[in-house]
C-alpha cells in the first residue's frame, strides 16, 4: 500500500518537475537590487503544436534577489513521442542578457516520462530544429537542471537612455562618425590628397611640372618622328 502511494507521489512529483521551467539570473559581480528585479522580465511563448485553446504565453519577473524565476504547470501535448516547444525570452532594462532566446523542448517517451531539453539561439537568428525545416539550424544544447542560467553579456556597458541634444556637427552625425574613426579619417584624407596632389605639385613646384610636361611632349614628338620615318 505504502509502495503504491510512494509510486503515485513519485510519479506526480516527476510529472510536476518536468513541466516546470526553472531559471536563474546569474550575475557574479552585481548585487541584484529591488530596482533591477522590477525591470527584468522573462517571457515564455509556446510555439508549434498546442493542445489547449490558445498557445501558452506568460511573462514573469524575478522571484528574489538570488535571481530565481520559474514557469510552472506548462501545458504539454500528450501522446507517445509528442513534443511541445517553448521559446524563452529574457529582457532587462539594466542588463544585456544572454542567451536572450532559448528553445525548450518537452517530449513524452513511451514509458510516460517527459524529457526536457534546452537550446540557446545565437543573436539575430530565429531558427530552431523542427521537422518542417529542411536544413534546421544547429543549436547548442544548454543545461536545464537544476535551472537554466541567464547571464549578462560580457563587458556590456550599462545602456544609456538619454542623448545630448544640439551637439555640434563635429560631435554627432556622419561627419563625427568619420572623425571618430581613425580608419575612416585616414581613408577620407587619402582620397582628398590623391585628388589635389597634381594641383599641389603644380603650385609648389612649377619647375618640375614644366619639366615633366616638356618630357612628355618630347616623347610624343619622338613617336611621331618614328612613325614618319
Ligand atoms: C552584495 O551585497 C552584500 C550584502 O549587502 C555584500 O556583502 C556583498 O559584498 C555585495 N557584493 C557585491 C559584488 O557588491
Ligand atoms: C527589497 O524589498 C524587500 C521587500 O520589499 C526588502 O525586504 C529588501 O530589504 C529590499 N532589498 C533591498 C536591497 O533594498
Ligand atoms: C504537429 O502535429 C501534427 C499532427 O499531429 C504533426 O504531423 C506535426 O509534425 C506536428 N508539428 C510539430 C512541429 O511537432
Ligand atoms: C517513438 O520514438 C522512438 C525512437 O525514435 C521509436 O523507436 C518509437 O517507435 C516511436 N514510437 C511511436 C509510437 O511512434
Ligand atoms: C523511461 O525511459 C527512459 C529511456 O527510454 C529512461 O531513461 C527512464 O528512466 C524511463 N522511465 C521510467 C519511469 O521507467
Ligand atoms: C610611344 O609609342 C610607344 C609604342 O610605340 C607607346 O607605348 C607609347 O605610349 C607612345 N608614347 C606616347 C607619348 O604616345
From TrEMBL:
<protein>
    <recommendedName>
        <fullName>Protein SOP4</fullName>
    </recommendedName>
</protein>
<dbReference type="InterPro" id="IPR031395">
    <property type="entry name" value="Sop4"/>
</dbReference>
<dbReference type="Pfam" id="PF17081">
    <property type="entry name" value="SOP4"/>
</dbReference>
<keyword id="KW-0732">Signal</keyword>
<dbReference type="GO" id="GO:0015031">
    <property type="term" value="P:protein transport"/>
</dbReference>
<keyword id="KW-0256">Endoplasmic reticulum</keyword>
<dbReference type="GO" id="GO:0005789">
    <property type="term" value="C:endoplasmic reticulum membrane"/>
</dbReference>
<keyword id="KW-0653">Protein transport</keyword>
<keyword id="KW-0472">Membrane</keyword>
<feature type="signal peptide">
    <location>
        <begin position="1"/>
        <end position="18"/>
    </location>
</feature>
<comment type="similarity">
    <text>Belongs to the SOP4 family.</text>
</comment>
<keyword id="KW-0813">Transport</keyword>
<comment type="function">
    <text>Involved in the export of PMA1, possibly through the monitoring or assisting of PMA1 folding and acquisition of competence to enter vesicles.</text>
</comment>
<keyword id="KW-0325">Glycoprotein</keyword>
<keyword id="KW-1133">Transmembrane helix</keyword>
<dbReference type="GO" id="GO:0006888">
    <property type="term" value="P:endoplasmic reticulum to Golgi vesicle-mediated transport"/>
</dbReference>
<keyword id="KW-0812">Transmembrane</keyword>
Amino acid at each position: 500500500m505504502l509502495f503504491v502511494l510512494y509510486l503515485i507521489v513519485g510519479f506526480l512529483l516527476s510529472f510536476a518537475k518536468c513541466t516546470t521551467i526553472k531559471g536563474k539570473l546569474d550575475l557574479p559581480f552585481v548585487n541584484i537590487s529591488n530596482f533591477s528585479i522590477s525591470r527584468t522580465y522573462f517571457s515564455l511563448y509556446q510555439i508549434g503544436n498546442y493542445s489547449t485553446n490558445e498557445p501558452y504565453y506568460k511573462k514573469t519577473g524575478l522571484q528574489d534577489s538570488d535571481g530565481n524565476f520559474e514557469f510552472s504547470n506548462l501545458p504539454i501535448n500528450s501522446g507517445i513521442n509528442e513534443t511541445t516547444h517553448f521559446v524563452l525570452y529574457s529582457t532587462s532594462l539594466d542588463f544585456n542578457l544572454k542567451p536572450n532566446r532559448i528553445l525548450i523542448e518537452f517530449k513524452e517517451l513511451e514509458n510516460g516520462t517527459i524529457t526536457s531539453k534546452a537550446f540557446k539561439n545565437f543573436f539575430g537568428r530565429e531558427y530552431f530544429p523542427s521537422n518542417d525545416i529542411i536544413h534546421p539550424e544547429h543549436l547548442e544544447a544548454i543545461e536545464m537542471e537544476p535551472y537554466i542560467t541567464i547571464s549578462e553579456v560580457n563587458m556590456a556597458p550599462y545602456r544609456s537612455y538619454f542623448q545630448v541634444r544640439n551637439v555640434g556637427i563635429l560631435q554627432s552625425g556622419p561627419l563625427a562618425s568619420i572623425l571618430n574613426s581613425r580608419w575612416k579619417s585616414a581613408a577620407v584624407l587619402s582620397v582628398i590628397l590623391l585628388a589635389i596632389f597634381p594641383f599641389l605639385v603644380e603650385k609648389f613646384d612649377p619647375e618640375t611640372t614644366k619639366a615633366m610636361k616638356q618630357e612628355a611632349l618630347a616623347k610624343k614628338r619622338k613617336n611621331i618622328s618614328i612613325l614618319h620615318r
